[in-house]
Every structure is written in structure tokens, then in C-alpha cells.
Specification:
With 160 residues, the protein is α+β, with helices and mostly antiparallel strands. It is built from four helices and six strands; from the N terminus they run E-E-E-H-H-E-E-H-E-H. A hairpin with a 3-residue loop joins strand 4 and strand 5 (90-96). It is globular. It starts with 5 loop residues before the first strand and ends in a 7-residue tail after the last helix.
Amino acid sequence: MPAALATFLTWTTYGTWLQGDARGSIVRVSAGRTRAIIPSPALERSNRASLKHEPTRLDRRQRTAVESAIRRVCEHRDWTLHAINVRSNHVHLVATLTKDADAAMVDLKAWSTRRLRADGLIASDRRVWTKHGSTRQIHNAASLAAAVDYVVRFQDRPRR
């Protein structure tokens, strides 16, 4: 398969989308492999009970700080940021990366967290993000345009 044209990255804030959730969830079974988890209210309740603190929801100032941090990292790394949308409970972005997508996600989350803490927008003992997220490779212009359109225009529409 040819090199990816871009990558669609998504990650959620801590505690806002737990395994067992009715919206669906996945579990990593090995390097690069995942499997779907059937929605399970009991599993979701169990996971909610094990949270260290309330779920993290980003307000307007926090979302602005996260977006700014991501933009700065992309500029510094010479990554092309095609689209970004920082929501109260998740981040979507489409970028052309010069490093592994999983490693890029770790960097983006870390720098965003540093920015939130440096700006006094989140407590130092509060988790901001879930452990991982989704990295989907984009291999053609039509898929890139669709991903950008989704990130920019379709976040507030109800799911079908």
C-alpha cells in the first residue's frame, strides 16, 4: 500500500467514552489490532466506578488552548494540519505527519496537556485524555476531502 496522504486522528477526554458505552467501543488486543466491544451497561458502570475523578470536559478556554498547542506542534514539526476540531469531550484532526501516527498522537496529547497546565486551565492531578485513540490512514484525495469535511462541518449533526 502506498504511503498515507494524511492521517485522521481522534481521541477522547478522560472518562467520557468508556468501554461498554452504547455508542460502541474497542479494545486493543495486540500491536495495531483492535476488536469491537459489544455495548454493555454493566461494563460501562464498572469502568465508571473505577474512574479516579469525574470525567474531563473541556470548556471554551480549554478547547482554545488545546487547539493552539496542536497547531504549534504541527507547525514546529512541519506537519500539514488539514483540519482540526476540539470538542468538549474529544479531538478530531487530519494531518500529514512525518512520524508514526501513534507517536504523533502521544506528542499532541502531551503538549496539549502541558499547555492546559501552564495556563492554569486544568489541575495537575487531573487526567485530561484517554490512553489512546484512533489513527486512520488516508490514501487518496477523495478520502482526505471527506475526512476534512467531517471534521470541519459535521460535528454538530445528530448521528444516524
